[in-house]
Amino acid sequence: MRKRIVRLSFLKLVLISALVGLLSATLAVTLKRITAHYEDKMLEAILPHRLLLVIFPAIGLLLIFLLRTWLFKKKKNLGIKEIYKTLDTRHDQLPAYKIPSHYINGFLTVIFGGSTGVEVSTVVATATVGAVTGQKVNMPRKYKAELICAGVAAGVTALFGSPLTGLLFALEVIARKVTRTVALSVVTAITAAQVLLSVLHEKPLFVFHTTGWQWRALPYILLLSVLAGLIAVLFTRSVIYIKYRFASVSNDYVRIGIGAAIIGVLVCLLPQLFGDGYFAITDMLNKAMVQPFTLPFAFTLLAVVLIKPFISSVTLGAGGDGGVFAPSIVIGSLLGLLIAVLFNQYLGTELIIVNFMVIGIAAVLSASIHAPLTATALGCCFTGGYVIAIPVFLACVISRYVASSLYKDTVYTYKA
Prior knowledge:
The protein has two domains: about 1-200, Orthogonal Bundle (Clc chloride channel), CATH 1.10.3080; about 215-405, Clc chloride channel. The protein has about 425 residues and is an all-alpha fold. The protein is built from 16 helices and no strands.
């Protein structure tokens, strides 16, 4: 009898995990699509009138503040720390309003120029999908972590078109320990998500064509890895400090005004900082491949790499929704591109540019969230295979070590 009850319990967990996977993947795909569509439309309309970029962030941040005040119980979104709090507290639950709150606020933040992305918004919203679904179907409380991880895994799978990235992120970053039921729930959810992606013919976020890598590039990969770790620490410390400084401003409208002014001016000067910045990755890569090297191009890359951590921190401090995921991808890709073009130009190294962009993405992300396996999977996902898996993994391990040696916390784990 006991074995039969256990089997039925597992079967119910599998079925509910599949449902959570479908719902979470649907949420992630729709948010990704509409955000990308309207971000492109906004940029296309505004770039001929650059000064409008100064006022756009103010509109977005004000709308988010008003929505939080009137619809979302005046509660600030705390990102992935909300999930940790729920998992670490037996009776605490993610309330259902977190789904529309993160969905809408993440969307508004990006399309009005806030320099983050919808990844963390998606993670918290899909975690809430898992938690709320479990409550609605009367799942035992002991499966709360399983269903939260299932939602997150499916959401990340849908964002990047990579089941392995979704699996590892849920286990390495969210669960932080693997049990049989967590693994079962997560695998079921990402399978359901992948089925939906196949039906929708969803394309990967990026496709970098790589054909191999060279051992003689190792010294430059090591340099990139160390720099990635240093920049990740700068980013983490910047987020923590700037959020603290903004929190000390008691007047909400003053806080929004200061943040919007900083974001607006910087975006006006460097449009590559607008929104998630993914368009800048493609644009800069195309320029590097077809145009001769120039110092203004190198300085633009350097400026984005150094300013992106600051402007993303200001976006979060002023009330925008998001996290470090998208900024880490942008910073890492352009850091890798900068190193490759500089050494190719001045030392004739013939480094493969796309390889260094992918390695940079993975290295900065690994150092920012202390998740080398997730970052390696994401890097390989962007290349469509494992041709450069060895240097990607090596860079992720080194950058993570450098970052954790200098500062033990991430933006997810620091104590406010």
